[in-house]
Amino acid sequence: MILQNLSIKRKLTLITMLTSSLALILSSVSFLIYDLVSFRHLLTQDLMTQAEIIGYNSAGAMEFKDERRHRHIVSAHRQRRHRHCCPI
After folding, report:
1. Model's pTM, two decimal places?
2. Are 73 and 54 in contact (CB under 8 A)?
3. Each residue of 31-59: pLDDT tens digit?
4. What is the C-alpha separation between 64 and 26, in angstroms, rounded?
5. CA–CA dist 8, 15 (Å, integer)
6. What is the CA radius of gyration of the chain?
7. How far apart are CA 26 and CA 50, in angstroms?
8. What angle do helix axes 67-77 and 8-63 make, rounded to 10 degrees?
């Protein structure tokens, strides 16, 4: 084996470097997974809030069949980039 030819100092340095590298990789992966999960949760909350706002704003327009007001509400919410349509 290659490790047999190394001195004790080199072996200890190698073990320390491997342990530190493994800890760094695991913590980086943990932060990445947490960030992805929290981003999805925040995006879901944002979409639910936007849906509630659209619902509250469009209730009157739907009840009185006000097409102009309906178009105004829909066009205001189309300004967000990740929204493609919002049918009511």
Report:
1. 0.59
2. yes
3. 999 999 999 999 999 989 988 888 887 78
4. 58
5. 10
6. 28
7. 36
8. 170
Return all residues near 11 (Cβ < 8 A) that are at least 6 apart: 3
Do the beta carbons of residue 34 and residue 48 sit within 8 Å? no
**Residue with the two structure tokens 């047999």:** 4
* pLDDT, tens digit (0-9, with 9 covering 90-100), for 16-33: 999 999 999 999 999 999
Nearest CA among 78, 83, 73 for reference residue 43: 83
Is 61 within 8 Å of 75 (Cβ atoms)?
no
Helical (H) or strand (E) element with 42: helix 8-63
